[in-house]
Design brief:
Structural class: alpha+beta
Distance between the termini: 41 Å
Bound molecules: flavin-adenine dinucleotide
Radius of gyration: 21 Å
Largest sheet: 5 strands, antiparallel
Helix content: 10-25%
Shape: globular
Strand order of the largest sheet: 7-8-13-11-12
CATH architecture of the largest domain: 2-Layer Sandwich
Length: 355
Amino acid sequence: MNSSLQQCLQIKNSFNVKAFSEKILKPNSIEALQEIADMTEVIEQHFYILGDGSNTLFVDEQAPTIIQPKFSGIEITEHNDHYSVQVGASENWHDLVSLCIEQGINGLENLALIPGSVGAAPVQNIGAYGVEFANFCREVNFFEFASKKLITLSNHDCQFAYRDSIFKGRLYNKGIITQVTLDLPKGWQGKTSYHGLNTLPDTASAKTIMNAVISLRQSKLPEPKKLPNAGSFFKNPVVSKEMFEQLQSKYPSIPSYPQPNGEIKLAAGWLIEQAGLKGAIYKEVGVHKKQALVLVNYGQGTGKDVLSLAKYIQQHIKAVFNIEITPEVRMISAQGEQPFASFTHFTPISELTYD
Ligand SMILES: Cc1cc2nc3c(=O)[nH]c(=O)nc-3n(C[C@H](O)[C@H](O)[C@H](O)COP(=O)(O)OP(=O)(O)OC[C@H]3O[C@@H](n4cnc5c(N)ncnc54)[C@H](O)[C@@H]3O)c2cc1C
């Protein structure tokens, strides 16, 4: 392989780890997507769809073929009782939120400053401060590789759930999101009940709420451009009521979020902190000093270093609490995305350091 033909992905992932791909495709039309649908690597599933790379870890330096959609444009239509906003997948999510608020179109303010592209927003149904993408999504345009056609999925079709959608399930790797349409009602009521926003007056404007969300996020989360990271690294685990009661008898202050089916969601960050791993450092990567759910790259850390640290954390949490935590971040090998459990080549960590 001629390495000069390799294209660098380091600035295209918010962990800022070194990675290269021989092929980075940037389709911006249906014709370009139709050509991609015929490619061997797409048929054999050796590719990765990349937005802005803020929920992505390139574990191997060698990345597979990358498809980075470039569908841009924002179109706003005013109706009697709502605004309809059609947005191309490659637009930046936070810029969209700011633009809407500047134009007096309210609703997205609690989702300000979530990094990434609009096209990735439906995939994990992004959410923050009591609001999620699904609350405003009318439809998603999806180019299907098999039929080589654009299909439209309604909100119901998308099967949105907590950090989940059909794009992680039945439609996973089956095509590309090209555009989303949001409906933002004119009859707006701000959502300020979430801890941190509940000191705002009932009359707070959407802009005030957005600015409060931005300040809160900036005080809690490291800015990826200054300290590379991919946000929450692990998903919050869900356990049975019996398991929760056992844990609660040992750890009375354990945070818990009862689920509609009777199970209990726990806070992965709390478990990591309680296990003494907050601020831990391995080579040039580590657990963030203020927010244990965030893994950070202090400089020249590699994807493999982050993997080794994540495996260590997972094993340690299992040993301490008998709970298995798994990454929310997508893990990419040279062959494409792989489940965390299938990454078996990593350096077992014997010791972590602390500042
Ligand atoms: C500091 C920080 C804070 C964060 N806070 C939050 C938060 O509060 N709430 C939250 O929900 N998330 C949060 N995240 C995670 C991240 O912002 C979201 O997952 C975001 O949607 C990722 O967008 P992206 O374009 O960077 O996606 P990428 O990392 O590029 O891709 C993410 C997934 O979407 C798929 N994908 C991307 N584009 C398309 C497309 N056009 N068609 C089909 N599939 C596609 C990819 O294949 C991949 O599976 C945070 C991340 C960081 C770094």
